[in-house]
Design goal:
single chain; 96 residues; mainly alpha; two-stranded antiparallel ribbon; 2 strands; 39% helix
Length: 96
Amino acid sequence: MEQKQSNGLSKEQKMFALIGEHEGSSMTVKDFCELYDLSPGTYHYWQKKYHAQLRDKPIEHQSSFTLLKVTEPQEESTAQDLFAEYRGIRFTGSHL
């Protein structure tokens, strides 16, 4: 059993929180490690454990994305209905 640190978090919880924070930032590993006084080796050790833990979780708990069912368009949309287009995929205002 992991011992809790003075802030009530285990070492694993603290490091996983830091890894998640870094992955949501635009900082380099070097700058992030300097900011939190970590060695790059320690960072990469915990990053590997963090990703292994995510990989081992059941799929329904990994993401907050929703499954999108893609269907053929019922009618041709006009440029006026066009909300957005990305790489040939059209999102229209009339279907939102």
